[in-house]
Design goal:
Elements lengths: L11 E6 L15 H14 L8 E6 L10 E5 L3 E4 L3 H13 L16
Parallel strand pairs: 1-2
Antiparallel strand pairs: 1-3, 3-4
Helix pairs in contact: 1-2
């Protein structure tokens, strides 16, 4: 039987929405989300944060927060980020993924959904 007190496989897990809509609706792919994902993944690896017990960087389909796009979400905290450029990704990696400090200025407004 599994208990809820077992340590998680990953300390933090970040998901990047890479969804692309074909009907010209707003979507994260329109904001170069793939480049942000690639940057985050390489930064996490370069800092030695990747792997079991550490950080996992994953692609995601639609996360249903299109109006705030591009978006990424960090678990287990459930913190949603909207980012603009590579320096924003670097700040998320260093502050949140490495040091556990939420980057307040990049938080996706709570009311923004699809």
């Amino acid at each position: 039987m599994t208990t809820l007190n077992t340590p998680p496989y990953f300390k933090r897990h970040i998901f990047f929405c890479l969804n692309e809509r074909k009907n010209n609706e707003a979507c994260c792919a329109q904001h170069d989300a793939q480049a942000a994902f690639d940057r985050c993944k390489s930064q996490v690896k370069a800092l030695g944060l990747a792997g079991p017990g550490e950080v996992r960087v994953n692609k995601a389909g639609c996360l249903d927060r299109c109006a705030g796009g591009p978006v990424a979400v960090v678990y287990p905290e459930g913190v949603w980020y909207t980012y603009v450029d590579a320096s924003d990704i670097d700040e998320i990696v260093e502050s949140h993924l490495q040091n556990g400090q939420v980057v307040d200025r990049l938080l996706t407004p709570a009311h923004l959904g699809r």
